[in-house]
Amino acid sequence: MARQTRLVLWMRNMSLLKRSALILLVDALIVCAAFYLGFLLRFEGRVPPERWAQLQRYLPLLLAIRLPLHVAFGIHRWSFRLSGIHEALRVVLCSLSGSAFFVMVFFFLQRAAEDAGLGPPRSVIVIEFFITTSLLGALRFSPRLAHSWTLDKLRSRQAETVRVVVVGAGSAGELLIRDLERSDEHAYEVVGFVDDDARKWGTSVGGRPVLGPLELLPEVVRRRGVRELLFAIPRLPDGRLREVIGLCAELKLSYKILPVSFAYLHDRVSASMLQALQPDHLLPRPPVTFDRAYITEKLRGRRVLITGAGGSIGSEIARQVAAAAPSRLVLLDFSENELYLLYRHLQSHHPGLAVEVEVADIRDRPRLTAVFAQHRPQDVFHAAAHKHVPLMELAPGEAVKTNLTGFRHVVLAAGAAGVERFINISTDKAVDPSSVMGATKRVAELLLRHLSRYFTGSFTAVRFGNVLGSAGSVVPLFKAQIAEGGPVTVTDAECRRYLMTISEAVGLVLMAGLSDYGDLCVLEMGEPIRILDLARLMITLAGFVPEDEIPIALIGLRPGEKLEERLMTEEEEARSRRVSDAIRVVDTPAPGPEWVRRLEELEALAGAGDGESVVAALRDLVPTYQPDARWLAPSVRARG
């Protein structure tokens, strides 16, 4: 195999040598022709005999200077298709250096021969420089220009040609238009740019005009028949991005954007990098970044167990943990189908990783104890929980059994197995809860604080808001409703939520949990966004007109839901401290013995299936809990 590879490399090198030799031969002919034309033009078509002698004498010297410089500057190895401004500059510098060396050499020859008339006229040298530079440039750039012209003609004849406007006439836009010109893998016809920088208006970038500010987009789109916007400003502020989408809401456009990672690529961009604009790009805050190297350092070679591994949060934790190369990854869930799919995914992407699967119910304490004793995990991520707010309003006892009793079983099994870190996934719905689910998650935060006193490891709860794309988020629901033609259902026009992408949320969970802050960590999520605005933006991104082609229906808040969520109470804000740009730590006091006794009574009531009593007991444990009116019996209402 190695011998075959060396043979292929040798043949490739020979082909390159032949190609370079051919280019140098053509360059030599160009230099000869330019030198001859220099004399011909200088003497108006009649070159005196003595000047012919000078031409013959100095042409070999000129070739001996220019051709080695072509090799030194590398212009004999030329990419005719990918040449650009840097390559053009190399050609000019190479040609200029050749003329300068030539003048220096024959100047010293003149001094040695004491004959001031020995060399060719200076005008001939100047003319030869310009002709040589022009012909060298024409040879190298004409194939690219011909290729671009041919592609433009072919695209103009295609029925599926898409007229586009590039948003952003900066370096990213210039690099994008350059790639679009030389690529045949798209059907775009770029009509021009728009940019907020007034200094660029009326100028041209890559042969396309800058048509004005972003506010003119609707007019430009209508007048020029534009069907798609290409955003070439990777760090365009999210607020400005939403404004642009709002301006074009009635125009039925498609939208693509360069990823933020382009900012680190400097001079590399291609049409294939363009991504369809997603709701993730419209979040009212800059993208969250975190230290992947730090996460890898904390997890490499360790035994990790994840409960609820088949869910949207648990499976993303598993994927990010697997990338950090732990010695063993244990996936625990009661849903065997999702668990199996995740197991297959990790096997294919991380074949060297030891992945164990445990089908288990966290309510089954003996089973959990056996699993933890067998695997002896060092780090545990607890993502198993009942999370759907409206469903848990219908079954408060089941929420308690899983979110509290099952949670207690996991913590006790982890403590008995000697885990070093335990990270519990919490939610902003635990703040002044209005739902059974939120109340149980708040009790779980306090229960973790109570139980952690009996173990030596670091036990942390990480609280954050809604996650885009998770099983319970509105994004999959809105996408399905849009695909069906609507209506898109929104609970209330003023309903607002904190939103974060699933990869951001899990990355920050890992950062917070693995940093041994302890207690309660709260993820900063920027400003909340109106769900009605999100619905309109998603309809626009799908190429429809909101409330015209796709209606929006306001259906009212469901049981247990609030208009707005908060990430911390006022008391917690006073107790909190910032440990990074995106993480705050709250020092939470441990509950007392009476609170623990009432929790045990709550778990007993959940086992008995008395929903009203369960809600009343939850309210005793979480005084800020405001249950839905359907659960408030007359006696409870009187106490409220």
Q: What's the CATH C level of the largest domain?
A: Alpha Beta
How many alpha or pi helices? 21
Question: Main beta sheet, described?
Answer: 9 strands, mixed
Poorly predicted runs of 5 or more residues: 261-271, 634-640
Biggest sheet strand line-up: 10-9-8-11-12-13-18-22-21
Number of E strands: 22
Estimated helix fraction? 40-55%
What is the alpha-carbon Rg in Å?
35 Å
Assign the CATH superfamily of the largest domain.
Answer: NAD(P)-binding Rossmann-like Domain
How confident overall, as mean pLDDT?
83
Q: What fraction of the residues are assigned to beta strands by DSSP?
A: 5-15%
Gap from first CA to last CA: 81 Å
CATH fold-level label of the largest domain:
Rossmann fold
- The coarse overall form would be elongated
State the secondary-structure class: alpha/beta
What is the CATH architecture descriptor of the largest domain? Answer: 3-Layer(aba) Sandwich
Number of domains: 3
